[in-house]
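Thread: quick sanity check before group meeting

JM: Hey all, I'm pulling together slides for Thursday and realized we never actually wrote out the predicted structure for the chain we discussed last week. Dropping the sequence here so it's in one place. If anyone has concerns about the input, flag it before I start.
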Amino acid sequence: MLAAASSILAAESASDEVHVRRATINDLDDIVALENASFASDRVSVRQWRHHLESLSADVLLAIRDRRVVGAAMLLFHRRHRVARLYSIAVAASERGRRIGERLLHAAELAAARRESRALRLEVRADNAAAQRLYERNGYRSIGERRGYYEDGANARRYEKALHRLHPVAVAAHAG
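JM (edit): ok, ran it. Output follows.
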């Protein structure tokens, strides 16, 4: 199933030579380096990344350019409900503005739809206007705010996107 998921999530484009694939435990060092470079606080620990890489209730997706990890996204799934959570998304500073975040977001939506999630939900810092624009441009709607959500006391805006619009044929087309 993991090999199938990897090929399903491949989103290679000749125009920018970035592809998205599922991460493996062998990617741990690169994921942690990206996490540490991307976030000053609220970082996912090495132990947590290892757990999520090995868990059936999580998907970690990587954006790869020239055999380098240039972006990562972590999705969490819960057995009892059909709302997936985009827990983390990061793009290397040198790669920002190249739509890598959007590619990871679309791959995350496809991964969630393949698991029959009805929606994808996330939190984003209230002061991160660029990320909020990315989500809104891609059909996410604001569903509330969490005060003091982050370690430094910053508020989070909550977003959600219904995935029923992802037609099964479109999901299957990405399967290979």
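AS: nice. Confidence is low (pLDDT under 50) at residues 1-15, 169-176. The chain is about 35% helix and 30% strand.
JM: adding both to the slides.
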